[in-house]
Design goal:
This protein has one domain. By secondary structure, it is mainly α. It is globular, with a radius of gyration of 15 Å. Helix 1 packs across helix 4, helix 5 packs antiparallel against helix 6 and helix 6 runs antiparallel to helix 7.
Length: 167
Amino acid sequence: MATRTDFSPEQWQALRNAPQLVALATAAAGNSGLFGSLSEGMAMASTMAEALRGEQPLLKEIFGKDDMRAAQDEIKGMLKSVTDRSALNATLQKAATDAVSAALAALSAKGATVDAAAFRTLLAGIGDKVANASTEGGFLGIGGERVSDGERQFLSQLNALVGTKLV
């Protein structure tokens, strides 16, 4: 089992940031509104709690308090210069796919096949849970569709990277 000390700072940054970037990119790809956004945030929080209770030491490290805070600070810094919604979506999706690719490459380079499988499952699960957390395009949670076209498009990219097919 791999741990933080097995990775360079750049590799760890990708591993640490990828889950949050996937959640944000999935949420931004939809148009959930206030209540939907709250549901999407709770979907990420429940996934994090599952990982912390799980058996994978690497995932527990990724979701450690200090690493979560560092990832949030880096992502906030990256997004400070983004001025409109379409640029936000594009920035988040590119950052997420770049981080996922770099993280999976780092796990592969270390020969961490068990950790890589758990990480792939985690990322696909985050995308799926966030996309399905609320309906898109309805009014006050009524009507609309469970997964928007934008979310489906991003999840297609994510699933191609991680090798899964959830949505």
